[in-house]
Design goal:
2 copies of one chain form a homodimer.
Chain A lengths: L2 E5 L3 H12 L3 E5 L4 H7 L1 E4 L5 E3 L3 E3 L8 E6 L6 H8 L3 E10 L5 H9 L4 E14 L3 E14 L11 H12 L4 E4 L2 H21 L4 H5 L2 H20 L6 H13 L6 H7 L6 H14 L5 H15 L4
Parallel strand pairs in A: 1-2, 1-6, 2-5, 3-9, 6-7, 7-8, 9-10
Antiparallel strand pairs in A: 3-4, 8-9
Chain lengths: 311, 311
């Protein structure tokens, strides 16, 4: 039994937190403005794995009432990392860990730097399709796997830690599969293998996954982008085999029509996660001496599109 | 005094033909369905260089009534080249010439192949902003230069021919500046230097020229694309200096807000000129051993967008 906190309880944090709570773990949500509504009405999850209403929710409006916990799940946008990293130490029990569910290749460094060596920082990638609706409804469409790896300085290869194993067991008890990785950096590049082409092109071409996969030119472009992601990963000394890209393409073809998270942000008029999803991988590849021309084009296009988004 | 025919009398063909006719040249327009309306109401040109109404127009609904002329100006979309090339010989006087105003790097070959060595084929690039409105109004916004070069087999370097000089003089008499080039292929690549980045990005990013030029990311991407056009041209053994690209960027910044021809087509729901503007230059570069990654990405994106256009 661990005690959890969920910071940034949007769709992703809310979903994993709700499932852990439903399975009997102690979970505290920092719900900010939503907190009173959730306290009164509970937290509802609608999911192909089964709907449920969580009636007793530890719903906090503010950091000040959050208790100390074993694991803080942070699921905020990268822009909030600095702020959260400065506050999260206060709600960690001795020996506690931070698990950051986020895209990009820099978030863990912010937390490791702020919290020091005594705190374990774990990076996680969520393979999930989920949205937050209204004040207390989490609508889960598909998937759910968490890919989890310990962060060591500059994303050095690590090992599976006892905390990672405990979290994985408790997630399994909540019906959530997780993949424990000894190489967080490789895991992140693997996530980018799908995330970069599909998030970018879904916004630039205004298309769902099924529309992209039904068009030969889009598939060809996705394949080129995936080759560049593999090249960026190789420049970090890690290998993603071509078969992994082919497998993802086939899997996406078989998927239900899906709007990527970037497209959901785009349609809501929100700013796009351009730096985390494309800028950081490009910068990392460039630092390793590799230019990724197609991803650079997508990056510039998305920055242009983002400049027109309201906020 | 030459007699001219204009085939494909849309905005561009219509504009140059109307100016030649107004200056006193004999000009026959193949106006198809518009022919009766233009015969009755004339052809109206609205232009910063001066408005005029051409009341006596040789307006033809069909090839069958077109007389033989000295110069046939062909200003159709590339998709119509085969059909027009098969018919145009019948309306050429002995020693007559075809002047093709079109983008792309293949149109002249179609005409040269169909017409044989006895017919001079001239390629022209129009630097102009003009649209056709309603049944008989040509609205000219800006520019007008025609860059003109003789076509020799496989776009070998040529020379300025007497026909080119005559046409240039008669254009000058109509107030149209032309540049006589001894290297059609270089002239075409120079046109592509602007056409590829601005046409492609104006559609993909749904933006006018001024909106692109006001955004650093768009300008950076345009510069990258211009470098690739220069590389494609270099692979053809021709050189476009970097200063030419810088000059075009500065010139575009100074231009009035402008929707490219591809964007005008896009907004009208018409098919996009993807092959002529991007596909052919890419194929030519590839045949010369050069891959242009960014232009390839734009090409695939435009093909996807074009697949959604009605017709």
């Amino acid at each position: 039994m661990s005690a959890y906190a969920v910071i940034g309880a949007g769709a992703i944090g809310g979903f994993y937190g709700a499932r852990l709570a439903q399975s009997g773990q102690e979970v505290h949500f920092l719900f900010r403005g939503r907190a009173p509504y959730v306290s009164e009405h509970g937290l509802q999850v609608i999911s192909p794995d089964g709907d449920f209403l969580l009636t007793e929710v530890n719903s906090h409006a503010d950091w000040s009432t959050m208790p100390q916990v074993d694991v803080v799940i942070v699921a905020v946008k990268a822009g909030a990392n600095e702020d959260v990293a400065g506050r999260v130490g206060a709600i960690l029990k001795p020996g506690g860990a931070v698990m950051l569910i986020q895209n990009g290749l820099s978030g863990e460094q912010v937390f490791a730097h702020a919290l020091g060596d005594a705190v374990e920082v774990i990076g996680a990638s969520a393979f999930i399709s989920v949205v937050f609706e209204g004040s207390n409804v989490i609508r889960h469409f598909d998937f759910g796997l968490l890919s989890v790896g310990a962060y060591l300085a500059d994303y050095a290869r690590g090992e599976v830690t006892p905390t990672m194993q405990t979290v994985a067991e408790e997630l399994a008890g909540a019906g959530i599969a997780s993949g424990l990785e000894d190489d967080l950096l490789l895991a992140r590049w693997k996530k980018l293998l799908w995330n970069i082409p599909f998030n970018a092109l879904s916004v630039i071409l205004d298309a769902r996954t099924d529309e992209l996969m039904a068009n030969d030119d889009a598939v060809e472009l996705i394949s080129i982008v995936m080759d560049e992601v593999r090249a960026g990963c190789a420049a970090d000394g890690r290998e993603i085999p071509r078969e992994a890209a082919d497998f993802l393409l086939e899997g996406t073809k078989a998927m239900k029509p899906y709007s990527t998270s970037m497209r959901v942000d785009f349609e809501a008029g929100r700013h796009l996660e351009v730096e985390g999803l494309l800028g950081e991988p490009l910068a990392r590849a460039r630092a390793n001496g590799v230019e990724l021309a197609t991803i650079t084009a997508l990056y510039r296009q998305l920055k242009f599109i983002d400049s027109r988004q309201a906020g």
